[in-house]
Amino acid sequence: MGPGELGEILCQIPSFDHPNLLVSGATMDDAGVYKLDSETALVQTVDYFTPMVDDPYIFGQVAAANALSDVYAMGGEPLTAMNITAFPTNCLSLDILREILTGGAEKVREAGAVIVGGHTIEDKEPKYGLAVTGLVHPDKIAGNSGAKPGDVVVLTKPLGTGIIATAIKGEIASPEAVKKAVENMTELNKTAAQTMQKIGVHGCTDVTGFGFLGHAWEICAASGVTMEVESSLIPLLPDVFDLANMGIVPAGAKANLKYLQDKVEFEGVSDTLQDILADPQTSGGLLITLPEDKGLQLIRELRNRGVLEANIIGTITESKSPKVIVKG
Amino acid sequence: MENMVDARGKACPQPVICTKKALEKLESNNSLVTIVDNEVARDNVVKYAKSLEYPVEVQQKQQDFYIKITKQDGIEPQLESRTRQVVLLSSSKLGEGDDKLGDVLMKSFLYTLAQSDDLPAAVIMMNSGVKLAVEGSPVLEHLMELNKKGVEILACGTCLDFFNLKDKLCVGNISNMYTILEYLLSADKTLNF
Fold first, then answer.
1. pLDDT for B2
2. In whole angstroms, how far apart are CA B160 and each of B132, B143, B164, B179?
3. pLDDT at res. A187
4. Is B3-70 assigned to CATH 3.30.110.40?
5. ipTM over 0.90
6. Is the pTM of this model over 0.90?
7. How far does B63 lie from chain A, in Å, by closest CA?
8. Over the stretch B135-154, which tens digit does the pLDDT of each residue have?
9. By a Cβ cutoff of 8 Å, what residues of chain B touch chain A?
10. How high does pLDDT run on average in chain A?
11. What CATH homologous superfamily does A15-139 map to?
């Protein structure tokens, strides 16, 4: 669902207030955090969706990387996971289900977590994802609300998976673009999260369905700051600009832009790039804010550890009315 | 006979893909109408047509959009920003060596330049170069053609004064050092003869 509609519904539902509930849905965060004691807090999240690639094994990997990412985005380490599956057992071969679950299990293993069970229902279209539980130190939570004026902003993965998935549906995606998009979506945010926790950061989220701009806005709204973004510094997947320029843009990107129209200011940014910046991402990178003097250190360490496309893409400034400013 | 693509009820990227396939089959100068039922599909199909530089018109009929695209013959996509070039002629002759040859080469140069697809923003004349733009010059017609095609023709006022030719200027404008310098400094490339 889009951020506007979802927000309207959620504000009508009773909210929970508890001294141990450190992070809830109120800040539009990636995962909830519940404090167990002064050293330990639980990070909990759930995420599932319909296939965006044809290969069931890759779909399983992507869905798992995406679900695990919410724990990483809070600065946590995943501990346990449970499968959530919908499958048309009458129409599709069970081999496909096995492939999906195998892909998911391998990513959970790579994350150092374990699958403890799951639940499957009968449905017309396959759906897969996981509920993930992790641990974080209560003082080291990297939420949406931690960004501070003077911070620099780091993005750890290139953008464009929604546009390439749309091109795949239209059978016009180049093999190179598909390969890079799949690598991008199956890569865990594990290394990025561990590196960021080692260096120490102020705020973090992962870039998913609301697009880069939607998640940048969440940080600004929750932290009461403005983010100034240099659009030329944002890494893109291959072919993404050309595809967006010929109108291969998912409806979700347009919905995100519409929701953000009074929250984001563009200064000399082409329509095409606006679409790309609002493109819904699957298993996108981390969007991190941290003190300027640590920014380059983080980039160096990330690149040394294989997160090659990480880049400083903007700064956080003080603001009475939070917004995202994107410069062309 | 117009060709139709009915993309109503189809999700992204199908409206663009169906339009793309239909356009590929279409002969040049023929039109195609793609019908869509939402703004996102409309914007994407219009964007696709524009990326090919095909003329596109949109008509709204009730909740549907009729997008008429006319296929064009091999239009090359324009470069986003063309380089701004300025030609500086500081002599009425092209090159040093023989004056007669210099006259012939200058005539040939300006003729060729006027026929070129890659026109400069301005042709600036200084010193004896101003003689090219005055009454009786053998290259007047080429300078006039350049001027007609939108190229600024600027003759240095001090130089016209020096040769006492100010009232004989036939093409372009009398200019001063400030304007000339501005042209030269803002150019991406200056060709100096």
1. 67
2. 11, 17, 6, 16
3. 97
4. yes
5. no
6. no
7. 17
8. 889 999 999 889 888 888 99
9. 11-14, 16-17, 20, 38-40, 43-48, 51-52
10. 93
11. PurM-like, N-terminal domain (3.30.1330.10)
